[in-house]
Amino acid sequence: MLKLIFLSFFLISYSLTVFGETIVWQMNHAPPATIVEGKYKGEGFLDLILKQLITALPQYEHQIIVSSMARSIFELQKQKNVCLPALFVTNKRKEFVYFSKASVAHPSHRIVFNRKINLSQKNELSLRGLLENKTYVLGLDNGRSFGNKIDGIITQKPYLDNVYFFSSESPNRLLHMVKKGRVDYTITYPFQVSYYNKYNDFNIDEFKIFKISGAKKYVTGQVACPKTVWGKKVIKDIDIVLKKLKPTKNYYQALSKWWETEAHSDDFIKYYNDVFLEN
């Protein structure tokens, strides 16, 4: 009887150990960062980064699941053993997420209008000014963050009537809505606009892109895991491998795929060395 009890305890313990040593990576279809379908499947720059992380973490089993951003955030809030390879740090997310050192760095968000819109030809626009204007409707993906500063503007109660939120597995849908005039503008990365035009074989740029007044030129994302004992351990291990991987040529090349021109600018190289590698 004692042997049977011991065996049962051993099997339960073993099952829990195996489960605890599996990282479920949640990926959102967000080309060209993550590309989970189509002719460029698996060739997103975040796909390539994740492959390097998985190779460097052989002590874990790894599963990759495609999900929406809203679902991924929900799973983290429920303290599931899931991680995202890159997520913006916000004060709200710190309440339920452990973040790694920076895993990605790239150009910051831009305001994107249909090219037919009649706007001034300035290089940048005030997001607050657009929302106060009430002339234009902003379309955004539910659950997606743009950093504390932009989130703080968007979520102010007087502006919410001009913001349309919906759940989608691809931000390209937002660009399509802008192109078709279903929403007036969205906020996304310049390399996502380039990918959209290339993927759809457009000969001319379908959009007008503006920098956001007061926004940083480049931003970073961090690996995100639940704020649990398990999540803390995983993040600790990830930080160790990031310190080894980030200075390598392979990591830089993976990170800069799909936006090579700006990635090789003096400004970004300086940012990569002075900020990204140090954080």
Summary of the model, kept short:
This protein is of the alpha/beta class and 279 residues long.
How would you characterize this protein structure?
This protein is α/β, with parallel strands linked by helices and 279 residues long. It has two domains: 20-106 and 219-276, D-Maltodextrin-Binding Protein, domain 2, CATH 3.40.190; 110-212, D-Maltodextrin-Binding Protein, domain 2, CATH 3.40.190.10. It has a six-stranded mixed sheet. Strands 2-1-3-11-4 form a five-stranded mixed sheet, sandwiched between helices. The chain has eleven helices and eleven strands. Helix 2 runs antiparallel to helix 9 (249-256). Helix 5 (148-154) links the parallel strand 7 and strand 8 (163-166).
Give the tags.
CHP02285, D-Maltodextrin-Binding Protein, domain 2, 279 residues, six-stranded mixed β-sheet, five-stranded mixed β-sheet, Solute-binding protein family 3/N-terminal domain-containing protein, 40% helix
Q: Secondary structure elements and their pairing?
A:
Elements: H1 2-20, E1 22-27, H2 45-55, E2 61-66, H3 69-77, E3 82-87, E4 97-107, E5 110-114, E6 124-125, H4 127-133, E7 138-141, H5 148-154, E8 163-166, H6 172-180, E9 185-188, H7 190-199, E10 207-212, E11 218-226, H8 229-245, H9 249-256, H10 260-263, H11 266-276
Parallel strand pairs: 1-2, 1-3, 6-10, 7-8, 7-9
Antiparallel strand pairs: 3-11, 4-11, 5-9, 5-10
Helix pairs in contact: 2-9
InterPro entries: CHP02285 (IPR011972)
Organism: Pseudoalteromonas denitrificans DSM 6059
Protein name: Solute-binding protein family 3/N-terminal domain-containing protein
